[in-house]
Design brief:
- This protein has 292 residues and is mostly helical.
- The chain has 2 domains: 128 residues, Orthogonal Bundle (Citrate Synthase, domain 1); 102 residues, Cytochrome P450-Terp, domain 2 (Cytochrome p450-Terp, domain 2), CATH 1.10.230.10.
- The protein is built from 11 helices and no strands.
């Protein structure tokens, strides 16, 4: 039997009644409580999805484990080592928030209408479904596997440049220097791959490709590795399949989305960007029968 009403909602919100002003329910403690539900819930759902995809039953979180350790545990079924736990924690911190990116903006736009925080976070998750925002680290792994061997890096890169192919894991809309998050994830990937034969091969290919790109596009166009270049290797070494890389992004970023939403609603103003009309002026109406 289900609950008579949804448990993931703000207390006191009446069915069918639109709020006329910012609800006091968004302030402490209920606003934070809803955020906690989302932070833990998105991680639990992601872990359950991975288990179900493997034909296994979902695993309940273990109250003795941290958030990062529980996340690995619910996805893989094994309790992570302290090192694995710390590396996942670092990865989640690095992805938690990063300026006014597409998903954060989407979440804040929806929240500014005084919609429910769950819908706001849902809009942020929806923004990640686009390949220009989510999924780049998964594509990096595909590229590294496509190259196949460290000796193939130079000829592959030459063909990619000739074909004007986008090199996944490089470049950023904001950074015109080496992504500081990549500087942290790179050594972590190096550490994890030392005891992982397949991961070690991919990491060597990645380092060789990085050298080629930095020596050319880095000098010419200030294109350097971004956060996605090494994160996929890190997740793979933790036993996480590539199709979960973008959901992991959401697991981390939900803390940033909720924090920004709660902060913005303290002095809320609905987002209403202006647009510039670039069409024709003084056009006369033509009946549809007479249109070409």
């Amino acid at each position: 039997m289900g609950e008579k009403r949804a448990i993931y909602e703000f207390r006191g919100r009446r069915k069918g009644k639109r709020p006329s002003q910012i609800s006091q329910e968004l302030s402490l403690p209920v606003g934070y409580k809803s955020s906690y539900h989302l932070i833990s819930g998105v991680a639990s759902v992601t872990g359950a999805i991975n288990r179900l995809r493997q034909g296994r039953f979902p695993i309940e979180p273990n109250s003795e484990l941290s958030h990062a350790a529980n996340f690995i545990y619910m996805m893989t079924g094994h309790r992570p080592t302290p090192v694995e736990e710390r590396i996942m924690d670092v990865a989640l911190i690095l992805h938690a928030d990063h300026g006014m990116n597409a998903s954060t903006f989407a979440a804040m736009v929806v929240a500014s209408t005084l919609s429910d925080i769950y819908f706001s976070v849902g809009s942020g998750i929806a923004a990640l479904s686009g390949p220009l925002h989510g999924g780049a680290n998964e594509q990096v792994l595909h590229v590294l596997n496509e190259i196949g061997d460290v000796n193939n890096v130079k000829p592959w890169y030459k063909r990619a440049l000739k074909a004007k192919r986008k090199i996944m894991g490089f470049g950023h809309r904001v950074y015109k220097a080496y992504d500081p998050r990549a500087r942290i994830l790179g050594p972590l990937a190096d550490y994890l791959t030392k005891k992982n034969e397949k991961g070690s091969a991919l990491f060597k290919i990645a380092r060789a490709l990085e050298k080629e790109v930095v020596s050319t596009l880095g000098v010419q166009k200030k294109i350097f590795p971004n956060v996605d270049f090494f994160s996929g290797i890190v997740y793979s070494c933790l036993g996480i399949p590539p199709e979960l890389f973008t959901p992991i992004f959401a697991v981390s970023r939900v803390s940033g989305w909720t924090a920004r939403v709660l902060e913005y609603l303290e002095n809320n103003r609905i987002f209403r960007p202006r647009s510039m009309y670039v069409g024709d002026f003084d056009k006369k109406y033509i009946h549809i029968r007479n249109r070409k």
